[in-house]
Amino acid sequence: MPKKKAILVAPLNWGLGHATRCIPIINGLLQNDFKVLIASDGVALQLLRKEFPDLKTVELPSYNINYPKNGSFLKWKLLLKLPQIKKAISSEKKLIKQLVSEGKIQGIISDNRFGVRSSKIPSVYITHQLNVLSGNSTFISSKTHQKIIKKFDECWVPDVEEAPNLSGKLGHLKSTDLNLKYMGILSRMNKIELPIKYKYLLLLSGPEPQRSMLEEELLEEFKNYNHAILLVRGVVETEQKINQKENLTIYNFMKTAELEKAINESEIIIARSGYTTLMDLSTLEKKVFFIPTPGQPEQFYLATRMKKLNMAPYCKQKDFTIDKLKEIENYLGLFTEENTNNILELFGLFEGK
Q: Residue 97 and residue 118: Cα distance in Å, rounded?
C-alpha cells in the first residue's frame, strides 16, 4: 500500500479569514487520503489547532503586522515593517527547505504566505487578490503580488471564473500568464433551515486594534436593545467564554459547527466585509450589514460591490448607528449563483496528474 502523501497547509495570520477558508481544504485533503501538516502562527494557528486537535502543527515566524488605530496609515506601517516581513519570509523558506529535505511533506498549499514554497515539490498559492487595492499604489502592489504568485506552480482562486462572481476585479485579470485555477466558492459552512433565535449576530474578526474598536462601538449602540442579540468576538483563547447581559449573549469565539448553527439561527448579520466572510454568508444566504475595516481598500471595494449588486448595505465604522440597519430591507441578501467547488479535482497536482 503506497504511503500517504503529506501536504503542508499554511495560512497567513491576518484576522481569521485565511485560516477558516483553509478548513474545507484540510477536510478535503483528509477525506482523500492525504496526511496534513498545519503551519501558521498566532490566532490562526490557535484556531486550526482547535478545529483539528489530532493533526500535527508547525509554528511559522510571525509577520508581526500591527494594525494602526488610524486605518489610513496602514500602507505606511506596512512599508516600515518591510525589513521585518522579509526576515520572516526568509525564516519561512529555511523551515520549508528543512521539511522538504527531511521528506516530511510532499506538497504545499500556502494561503498568502510568500515564503512557504519549494521548487522540489508541488507548491500552490491561494489568494483572491490577484489585484491588490492600495489606493494610488494599486498598480505597483498588484504587479508585486503577481510576481510572487508566479513563483508557485499554481495559484488557486477561491471564486468562480465567470460572471457573476464574488471577488470582481480582485480575483479576475483581463489577461495573464499566471497558472490560475478557480476553486469555486469556498466555505466551511452549510445552509441549514433552523428557527430564528437571534435578531442580530454581531460577527467580529480582523486585526487589532480595529476589532476591539468596533466591538466597543457595537456594544454601546446595542446596550438598550430589546431583541435577542449574539456577539461573537472572534478572540481565540484557550477556553470558550460565554457571558449573558440581558438580551445580549457574548462568546469569545466559536468553532465551525457552533458558528454555522449560530449564523443559520440569526436573522441579520453585522460583519466586516472580508472576503472569507462574504463566501460564508453567501453560502448561508444571509441578510447582512457590512462595516469595512478602516484603511482596507479591499473591504471597501467588496462592500461597495455588494451594495451595487443590491445584495447588502454598508457604512463606515465611524458612521454606524442602529438606525442604519433599516436599510437592510431594501436589499436582497447574499447568495451565490454557483455554490459548488472543485477542490477535489485540484488535488490531482499532488498526485502528479
A: 7
